[in-house]
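Hi support team,

I'm opening this ticket because the web form for multi-chain structure prediction keeps timing out on my end. I have pasted the exact lines I submitted so you can reproduce it. The total is 643 residues across two entries, so I didn't expect it to be a heavy job. Is there a limit I'm missing, or should I split the entries? Thanks in advance, R.K.
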Amino acid sequence: MKSNQEPFFIQKKSLEIILSNLKLKGYKVFGPKLKNNAIVFGEVGSINDLPIGYVDTQGPGKYEVKKSSESFFSYVNGPFSLKNFLYPSEVDLLKVEKKDNKIRVLSNTNVVEKRAFVGIRSCDLSALKVLDKTLLGYEYVDEQYKLLRNGTFILGVNCVRAGENCFCTSMNTGPKLGDGFDLALTEMEDGFMLEVGSAEGERMLDGVELRRASEDEVQQAGELVERAARVMAKKVNILNLKNVLYSQLTNPRWDDVAKRCLSCGNCTMVCPTCFCNDVFDDNELKSGVTTRKRIWDSCFNVEFAETTAGNARPTIKDRYRQWLMHKMAYWVDQFGTFGCVGCGRCITWCPVGIDITEEVRALRGE
Amino acid sequence: MASGYSELKNARIEGIRWDTQDTATVRVSLLEEEGRKSYSFKPGQFNMLYVPGVGEAAISISSTPEGSGVIEHTVRAVGYITRALLNLKEGDFIGFRGPYGNWWPVESIARRNVLVIGGGIGVCPLRPAIYYLLKNRKKYSSVKILYGSRTPKDLMFPDEYSSWRDSGAEVHITVDRGDENWRENVGVVTTLLNKVDVKPENTSALVCGPEIMMKFTAIDLVMRGIKPEDIYLSMERRMKCGIGLCGHCQFGGFFVCRDGPIFTYNQVEKFLNVKGI
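Hello R.K., no limit was hit. The queue was backed up. Here is the completed structure from your submission:
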């Protein structure tokens, strides 16, 4: 649901009331937190848990945070995304009991709490829509994702600063939040512009001192976001991108990037849409109950495409090509959307600083 | 919408028949109360077989689609799951879900000449189609089966070739390397195409085997004038979930489990021609 009302203007400290309303209404609240010198998502009790004033500097294979402002949301994205919570790295799929030689599937006892996520950027909200199409859009759905995703509350933030590795403007995924948020903030010098995206969002405004944002304020907030878009340095040309890449499967650039790529899989771990997984049996020897667990896998793992007939992608070149082609081309055929939202995490967290935007540019011959 | 992983049924091992040194056919049946009678599949589909405490593997169905209640899966013991499966014995129960995937177009190719071309254990997912074609032999102009393996010892289902012939199929067999007793063709499976009369405008080909064999078979068939959209290939990729959720079986813009495993040559040509896709 798109913002259905005129925006409000609130004091920054009013965010505290919204957080406590969320908790009062039964939500467990997660938001950005500083941990081990990186901004990750974790449980937040109050606005004092937010990394207020911290700003990140990112580059290919580079990430640094420093306290250098008074703003609440000057940093962009860290290594975590909604994927860590809605599609966690390890989840129980089902339990199987073996009795009298026969198997019995035990009912899934996962209890899911209501969760609210604060400080979600447009790229990550877009990634959620990609995951929805990918995991819920076809005949068989990912039941665990469906369970964890249901009833998720999103308090979004429009980016007023572009990170060095961001390219959401190219992927049409930001920096302004599209639909799907419950509440959205745009940080201004002396307060937040607040947009309401859902009835549930509106319910969290009890006790918040609200006033209609003035026309000037609305315009100013819009300009801040537009400026972030304008100064965004990284770009990908998506014009006819799928077909262009399909025609470049034997481009020598794949050999070039394969010399740099370590095949470590970091990019797939931090990617907010990478969903490839493996399932393994965790056996309790005493009870004889087996838990079938789903864990993140990565197309960079050497055995990922191994079959009886051999390994379909034995070289790093094959595996890097699979990953980039999946994000930027195959995904379009498979799920009707790009698998990339331009968050830039794969660039930041690549230990050798491979930049997907540069690789695409080279493959396009630009 | 359907749920996937938890749809496991019990399947009783009715027997394991070793076909070659490393390949065996596992015969299973579902329990009466878990849908033994209602279970049906089409030629070319696969099931997920689950060895409790070990894991699941996608295995194509190799028996006739005419339901006798016993479903056959032919398995090469290579990984830990297939080895565990083949270590089981009659009366053991495994988990079972399926059938999944699309199927050979046996109905829509009626009245045509059908070429069935198999390589190695690739003949296993073709076997249900062979049974179907021969049971309905009158519906097809001709049925020709071309099958090859590495050595005579690796040939699958050698006892059945004469019954295939008796049911109205032309059957040609080849091996890459013969032995002292081998009297038939030696050479890759495409060499058998020179032995049969191919009428390109009215022929459909069903092909399954190693990827390299399918690629060169398709190229050969196209050179003989068969349209790429009349050449059907059953692709092999690592299918971990069977239901389009794990990402393992990707083949270019396809999920082999969800969009296949059977594709026409024109769908996959651009990916088959590049190594390492």
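A quick check on our side: Chain A touches chain B through 52 residues (CB under 8 Å). Let us know if the file doesn't open in your viewer.
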